[in-house]
Amino acid sequence: MRNIEARRGMNDEFDVGGRLKTLRQQAGLSQRQLAERAGVPHGQISMIETGRSSPSVASLRRILGGLGITMSAFFAPDEAPAQRVFFRAGELTDLTGQLGDGVAIAQVGDALAHGLQILSETYAPGADTGEAMLDHEANEGGIVVAGEIEVSVGGERAVLGPGDAYLFDSRAPHRFRNIGDTPARIISACTPPYL
């Protein structure tokens, strides 16, 4: 599984465990109650909150589902976002910081306000969304802009290169994996927002 070592910016470390604990307590849930809601082992919540473990993307998404929040809400600053039209490269919202083994995901603006999530995704050689397939209520598509990425959707699998694209119902189990020796970059969209 790929682990999250999230950070809000280049120099500011993001405390995944502390943020999770704060949100869990605000929801009035014990660690055990959140674990039951999310369908994860009780010990996993404790390990994350105390900083002894970093969750995979799939695990964090499952845990946040137990709280009824998205990853973008989890990683977003607490201040209300301004309604903006244009975003410079350094102004994208870092949803995951750097995922262990080289997955980085950044979002354009306030996805929930627009009902559309636009992402810049980068997968280092060997990077993977995890052995556990992802699935969620949405539709998603993307275009590979650099490198190669293996995309598995349901029973189908393809290796896509620059200019190649995908579009599918996200309820189908899916996975992204860079099997090449150079970084892969994708520009993707998802509606309604998932992360």
What is the topological layout?
Elements: E1 4-5, H1 16-26, H2 31-38, H3 42-49, H4 57-67, H5 71-75, E2 93-94, E3 98-99, E4 103-107, H6 111-114, E5 117-123, E6 139-146, E7 149-153, E8 156-160, E9 165-169, E10 174-177, E11 184-191
Antiparallel strand pairs: 1-3, 2-4, 4-5, 5-11, 6-9, 6-11, 7-8, 7-10
Helix pairs in contact: 2-3, 2-4
Domain HTH cro/C1-type: 20-74
Protein name: Transcriptional regulator
Organism: Sinisalibacter aestuarii
Describe this structure in words.
The longest helix is centred in the first third of the chain and has 11 residues, at 16-26. Helix content is 24%, strand content 27%. The chain is an alpha+beta fold. The two termini are 18 Å apart. Strand 7 (149-153) and strand 8 (156-160) form a beta hairpin. The protein contains six helices and eleven strands. The protein has helices at residues 16-26, 31-38, 42-49, 57-67, 71-75, 111-114, and strands at residues 4-5, 93-94, 98-99, 103-107, 117-123, 139-146, 149-153, 156-160, 165-169, 174-177, 184-191. The protein has two domains: 4-75, 434 Repressor (Amino-terminal Domain) (Orthogonal Bundle), CATH 1.10.260.40; 89-191, Jelly Rolls, CATH 2.60.120.10. The protein has a six-stranded antiparallel beta sheet. A three-stranded antiparallel beta sheet has the order 8-7-10, with no helix packed on it. A two-stranded antiparallel sheet has the order 1-3. InterPro entries: Cro/C1-type_HTH, Cupin_2, Lambda_DNA-bd_dom_sf, RmlC-like_jellyroll, RmlC_Cupin_sf, TransReg_Diox_bact_type. Keywords: DNA-binding. Pfam families: Cupin_2, HTH_3.
